[in-house]
Amino acid sequence: MVPEVRGICVDAEARCAHYDSPFDVIAIKVKCCRTYFACKDCHNALVDHSLEPWSAEERAHRAVLCGVCRSELTIAEYLESSSHCPTCNASFNPRCREHHGYDFADA
Ligand SMILES: [Zn+2]
Ligand SMILES: [Zn+2]
Ligand SMILES: [Zn+2]
Question: What one-character-per-residue DSSP string does 9-44 give?
Answer without folding.
Answer: S--TTS--SS--STT--EEEEETTTTEEES-HHHHH
